[in-house]
Amino acid sequence: MKLSALLATALLLGSGLPTLVHAEGKLAQLYAPRPPAGSAFVRVLQPTADSVEVQLGQNPPQRLGDERLASSYNVIKGGEPFAVRIAGKTVGTLTVAADSYQSLVLHDGKLLVLDDSAASDDALKAELRFYNLASDCPAGQLQVDGGGPTLFAEVKPNATQARAINPVSASLSAGCGAVQAKALALPQLQPGDHYALFLTGSAQQPVLRGELSSTAAFAR
Predict the structure, then answer these.
(1) Smallest Cα–Cα separation from 56: which of 72, 37, 67, 68?
(2) Contact, 152 vs 116, CB < 8 A?
(3) Taking the alpha carbons of 31, 114, 99, 197 in that order, is the dihedral positive or negative?
C-alpha cells in the first residue's frame, strides 16, 4: 500500500473527540508521582533559533534554542497565577484553567496562550500537533510530502491544530501558499506519543521543524 494511502487511512481511524487528558506513551511513567487534581500543564515555545532560558512559576528553568523549540510541559496549579520568566526577566503573570494543556509564545512583547487540548483519548494513537509560527503567514498548511494528503490546512498565524493518527513513518512538508519548507522526516512514533511540528521562519522562507513533546518530572 502506498504511504499516502496508508497515512490517510491512519488519519481516518485516528479521528475522535477532543479531551484534556494526554495519553502517556512510556510504561515507566505509570509509576512516577502523579500531579494533584486540578493541575494544568504549560510550556513555552521559542520559534527563533536564539538560545534562551525560560521558567514557569517555581518550576526549574529550561533552556531553549536551535535544537529545542519547546520546553517540557510544567505542572502548574490550575486557577492560580504564576510568573513567566524569559531570559531571567518576568514577562507576564498568567492564570490557566485546571486540567488544561497550554503553550505560551512571546509575540511582539505579549504572551499568547495556545490551547493544546488533545485530539483523542485513545492511548493506541499518536498525536500530531501543528503550529503556524511563521511571520507574515496568514494560512499555514502541512501535508505528506510528494503529493500526499493534507493533514492541516488554513492554520492561522500563532495558532495550532492537532489530530490523532495510527503511528506511521512519513516525510512531511509545510509552508505558506506555494512556498514550501524543506521536507521533514517524521520519526517512527509510538502509541501515546505527541509530536509537535513547528512552521517557523517567514512566508517567503518557511522552515519546518519537529520534536517529541514531553512533560517535566513532577516532584511532590
Answers:
(1) 72
(2) no
(3) negative
Looking up residue 141, the CATH number of its domain turns out to be 2.60.40.2890
Burial 154-172 (b: 16+ CB within 10 A, else e): ebebbbbbbbbbbbbebeb
3-state secondary structure of 28: helix
Could you tell me where the beta strands, DSSP code E, fall in 72-169? 74-77, 82-86, 89-94, 101-107, 110-115, 126-132, 140-144, 150-155, 159-165
Cell of 162: 492537532
Residues 67-110 have pLDDT tens digits of 899 999 999 999 999 999 999 999 999 999 999 999 999 888 78
Question: Is the CB of residue 182 less than 8 Å from the CB of residue 208?
Answer: yes
102: cell is 497550554
**Residues constituting the chain:** 220
Positive or negative CA dihedral for 153, 105, 201, 137? Answer: positive
Closest CA to 175 of 211, 143, 131, 206: 206
pLDDT of residue 79: 97
pLDDT of residue 56: 98
Question: 198 in a domain, yes or no?
Answer: yes
| Average of per-residue pLDDT across 179-195 | 95
| Total domains in the fold of the chain | 1
Residue range of the domain that includes 84? 3-212
| Residues 6 or more apart whose Cβ sits within 8 Å of residue 153 | 139, 141
